[in-house]
Amino acid sequence: MARGTGKKVVAVVVLALLLLEGAYVLSANVLLNTNWLDPLINRDPDRLYVTWESGWTVLPGRVHVEELLIRGRTGQHRWEARAQDVSTHIALLTLTVGEFRTHAAEARGVRFYMRTRARQGANKEEHSAFFPELAGSSTEAGPAAPSAAGQQRAPGWVFDIGGLRVEQLHEIWFDEYRLQGVAHASGRLRVQERGPLAIPGLRFHLESGALSVAGEPLSAGLQIDADISLERFTPGPEQGREVLRHLSGIVQFGGDQASYGFINYYLSNRAWPRVSGNGRTSATLRLGRGRLLAGSRLAIESDAVKVSVLDYLVSGAGEISGVVTDDDGGTTTRLEVALREVDYRRAGEAKAHLRSPQFRIAVQTPIVDLAGDPPSYEMRLVIPDAAIPDVRVFNAYLRKGGRFRFRSGRGALSADLTLAGNDASGTVTLSGAEIGVETFREPLVGDVTVEIPLREAKLDTRHFNISGTRIRVANTRHGQSAAGEAKPWSAAVVLEKAWIEAQGAAPDKGVDKKGYVFRFPDGELKLAGDVSDINFINRLIPASHTVRFAGAARIGADARVADGQLAPGTRLRIDSDAITAHAMDFTTRGRADIKARLEGDPRAPRLQIETAFRNASVQRDGDISPYVKEVDLRMVTRGERFDVSRGLKDLQSEVSLPPAKVPNLSVYNRYFPPNAGARIVAGSGLLSGEFTLRGERASGQLQLSASNIVAEVRGDTIEAGLRVNTRLNDGNLRNMVFDVAGTAVLLEDVALASGDATHDERWWGQMYLERGNLAWTTPLSLDSTVLLKLRDTGPIAHFFLMDRKEAALLRNMANISNIAGRAQVRVAGDSVELRNAELTGDGLRMRANLMINNKTPDGALYVKYKAVGVGVELNDGKKKLRLLDPANWYENYVKENVTRQADAE
């Protein structure tokens, strides 16, 4: 009986369980396939909405749904998750209290979308052009809805999903980032609406996928293996990458990279460099709360990498690599871009500016926080041995209308730069042989080396301190050589204080399309160095001025720059042990200091050049012996309306020659007609003078004094003192013709020896040029009217009248005192001509027309002393006396010979 009762109890229990199971299956399936659960689940459908097409369950707590859709929003985001089917263990009754809890869930065919909601007033179209389209309310973020007074805001749904497995995860789309493929994921999710979120562990595997950004492909054939966890945090104002601060784990990925946007983000604390191209990528990222940890690595191999640096696009094949290590000083992150066979092209230009075998950028920073702002870092940029196919490409960096341009040549460039934030330092070296340039509107060709140290470079303001720059030029020739500049010259200059600035729009992203133009900014520029020839000064002096400088020297300059031009206050210093200054047909050599300064109105400044020679010598071109030596000579050149390319206008030079020793007066013989029969044998003297040169005009005076001159005149020797005051009233430097009226010559203490006769050593004679035109040639050419004063006729009688046979006849005419006269003197070529000469004295009248050529005089003289007159005809050095009516004979001779010759001229 008892056994039967027991069986009945079991049967009743089983039946009750079957009834309960049937009731559960019936009620649960009805709930899963009708809308009865909507009011319970979707209490605030705009904030959280859950729906599915169909569902079923057999065992209590085990639910299967198909075409699941979960959509929600926060203050900053809208999101949506879709799954083809989901199977999970769930307590259905917990749904009635707003909780979804499961210890196992499986999903297949999953897609997830999230977009940041635009701020109010933002450009919605621009903001969401590449974001996923989501159904629901406005995509514009608005203020949170206020709660009723005294009401507590509902805590929202609680999701606690353990044992989550996702198969066939097809798509994850967050704002403009879109990942597509077939992935698998497993882990645990804990989230509360308007509360904390946590993913204690997540494994993610993508076999082959594609990633795009804003519609542009980023990666293809992408493989991802990730084992990560997201620490518990409460979403709210945190958006985007800030979520990464709670992320830890390991992410490994690889694939064909079509964009290096993630690298550009890493470098995005400045607008450059920017990296683009494609290649095969592999990476391992070890994360600790959003920071890269030691062991993280990146490797990219590519046949086409492009790096934009300033306004250059650098392209080549190479590798991009990165590594994070733990050093003694802490964590260090290094990123390197190494390229081979590299071209450097300026934005918008097809022609390569540079070509180099290598190019390297190395970036180093202590730590990288993916959740924070891009890190500050130090970057090293290396360009070794880059070839410059055509130096003219650098004209693009020079201001149009400037004073310097490249004309031809090939060169090389090397650079090693370190950049930290907006600061840069390092060196750039430029070199080239046979580089053609144009400066001061004149072509130059030479070998050039420029070493530029970047001591302080501000990339934000584009100001660069290049103090210490060394410029060396060698074998340099002028395309249009002036006198004294035919030899190649060299120079080595150091810019002791120098800044340059780059004008042009700074690049926002990538290459600056407008490019840069470099110039010296307003301020001070200092330089010092050595030059083998200072003939560059001649560029400032018009050729018509005739003054030219040459010689090796030490130079220094303090330049003032305003609006890209040299400004008043600019000073140049030149110091040399061997400078030459060439003026007219004279060259001055010696130690010298040259000082130049710019002053006056900035719109039309004046330039003054002061040259001070010390212990110098002055020598005529072609002579061996100097005219003067051991002289301190000073020359001041002034010019108005200075322009660095056109030189000086309204030029004037003043030359001051203090008394200087003339070691050998015989140097003046070259100015005498070679066959005039007179020359200086010996003697020394002192020479002084002052000159003023105005353009092609010249004026001034020279004083020569000598007490011991020895000369030969027609075979006889004269010893005398000499004083010459030469007046240059006006001269044309182009043809070297001068007005010398006012010039005076004094012979004193003259001693004349002829045979056994010695004349009084106290004889003197004066000559004054009442009129005179002098051509400064060799020999000199002179056309003048001369006034004479002589102590007596002694030397004249000796040279032109007397010999031993005639002594008795002419003795009374030999020493007549108080002689005065006038004559026209012409010196041209090999001859000296005396026309219409007339001398008078105590009872004496002398008239003469003579031509001295081939050392012999030709012509006629008429001499009358008291009542006695005589005519003298000179023919090829032979004298013939005319005693019969000599006055009439002389007049007829002048008419037949001299007047006829004058008419012919």
Descriptive overview:
With 905 residues, the chain is mainly beta. The chain has a 51-stranded mixed β-sheet that branches. The termini are far apart. The model is unreliable at 137-151, 480-485 and 505-513 (pLDDT under 50).
Briefly, what is this?
Helices cover 8% and strands 60% of the residues.
Given as residue ranges, the uncertain stretches (5+ residues, pLDDT < 50) are 137-151, 480-485, 505-513
- Mean pLDDT equals 80
Please summarize the sheet with the most strands: 51 strands, mixed
Count of individual helical segments: 7
Cα-atom radius of gyration: 53 Å
Number of strands: 51
What percentage of residues falls in helices of 4 or more residues? under 10%
N- and C-termini, Cα separation: 179 Å
Categorize the overall geometry.
rod-shaped
Strand percentage lies at: over 45%
Broad structural category: mainly beta
Keywords:
51 strands, 905 residues, rod-shaped, 51-stranded mixed beta sheet, 8% helix
Write the layout of secondary structure elements.
Layout: H1 2-32, H2 38-41, E1 48-51, E2 54-56, E3 62-73, E4 77-89, E5 99-102, E6 105-116, H3 124-127, E7 158-174, E8 177-192, E9 197-213, E10 216-233, E11 247-257, H4 261-266, E12 274-288, E13 291-292, E14 297-309, E15 312-327, E16 330-346, E17 352-365, E18 378-388, E19 404-408, E20 411-420, E21 423-439, E22 442-458, E23 463-465, E24 469-478, E25 489-497, E26 499-503, E27 517-519, E28 523-531, E29 548-550, E30 553-562, E31 565-583, E32 586-599, E33 606-620, E34 628-631, E35 634-643, E36 647-662, E37 678-682, E38 685-694, E39 697-713, E40 716-732, E41 737-739, E42 744-754, E43 757-758, E44 763-775, E45 781-792, H5 794-800, H6 807-810, E46 817-828, E47 831-840, E48 844-853, E49 856-865, E50 868-875, E51 878-882, H7 886-904
